[in-house]
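User: Hey, quick favor. My workstation is busy. Could you predict this chain's structure for me?
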Amino acid sequence: MSESHPSSTARLVVGVSGSPGSLTALARAADEARRRGTELWPVLAWEPPGGNIAARRSTAATILVEDWERLARERLLKSLYEVFGGTDTGLPGRSLIARGVPGPALVQLADRENDVIVIGAGRRGRLRRAMWPSVARHCLAHAGCPVLAVPHSPLQATLESAHRRNVLQLRLDTRHVEREFAVPPPRS
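Assistant: No problem, here it is.
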């Protein structure tokens, strides 16, 4: 990705984690950046397992920080490859690895009033909401700039269901496919 010097130009700061929702957000952010003529800043925020406080208490964790950062960089590069087919997005801006909690890291990076934060807003059940804080909710509540929360792909639930059925070696439900093919196409 091309490097850019800090300026007052508008940026689309997009949170990337490698999840399907974040890949959808990255693709949407690239489309928005092209349309608006702004910079694209994909950001992968990471923190050590157990958080920064646990990492500071352990001497072994200080040794592993370089490995964790390398893994975060690899995950960001893999996400860029999946969306763009390479590391170059064809847009001005830069990719960043930020050490910290994702929500606050994105809000801190998007510190200009003409910036926009783009974040995936996937489905979240009660258990996930209780166990893991929502990055999208944090950004919506604390950002000083506009936030674009991109909903998950409508196909994601179907793919997850098919994956669960495959793992459990259950028969896939193909009745809706049969119904679709039984209806003749409309005439032009």
